[in-house]
Amino acid sequence: MQYSRAMRIALYQPEIAGNVGAVLRLAACMSVGVDLIEPLGFGYSDKRLKRAGMDYIDHVDVVRHADWEAFRGTAQGRIMLLSTRGETALYEAAFRPDDTLLMGSESAGVPDSVRSACSGSLRIPLRMPMRSLNLGMATGMALAEGLRQTGGLPA
């Protein structure tokens, strides 16, 4: 299995420091980069971010972007949005090694202008009447499936 470092996670205006810390820890373990699209709902030096990310944060390629347009100017490959309103079920998607998995903010997701700029939108099938998963859990599931499909899981 070939190891890929091209896939990335992007978090659009995340609001909860602990969720971001957990995603940074996930990214460190899976060797993928993270793009943080500001504004953040907390200070980047927040203790909750450090607590959830622990010492793993030092092992992640984190790029902070002032806004959506700044991020778009640097994004390469497809931007695949994970959303409760996604068009394609996660396990029916065909991932590419250079995809960026975009997660919306915890309370509002992404605006329609961001949604329409994405290459596709994915949803994680859930039993009714459940609405959504925690940001970190959803990111982990999507990243694992993307890396599995593209041969990018760590050995």
Can you offer a commentary on this structure?
The chain has 155 residues and is an alpha/beta fold. Helices cover 31% and strands 18% of the residues. It has helices spanning 17-30, 47-53, 68-72, 112-117, 135-150, and strands spanning 8-12, 33-37, 62-65, 79-82, 88-89, 100-103, 120-123. The chain has a seven-stranded parallel sheet. It is globular and about 35 Å long. Residues 1-5 have low confidence and may be disordered.
Task: Give a brief rundown of this model.
This protein has 155 residues and is α/β, with parallel strands linked by helices. The chain has helices spanning 17-30, 47-53, 68-72, 112-117, 135-150, and strands spanning 8-12, 33-37, 62-65, 79-82, 88-89, 100-103, 120-123.
Q: Give the number of domains.
A: 1
Percent of residues in beta strands? 15-25%
| Average pLDDT level | 89
- In CATH terms, what is the architecture? 3-Layer(aba) Sandwich
**CATH C-level:** Alpha Beta
Distance between the termini: 8 Å
| Major sheet description | 7 strands, parallel
How is the secondary structure organized here?
Blueprint: E1 8-12, H1 17-30, E2 33-37, H2 47-53, E3 62-65, H3 68-72, E4 79-82, E5 88-89, E6 100-103, H4 112-117, E7 120-123, H5 135-150
Parallel strand pairs: 1-2, 1-6, 2-3, 4-6, 4-7, 5-7
Keywords:
Alpha/beta knot, single chain, 31% helix, seven-stranded parallel β-sheet, 5 helices
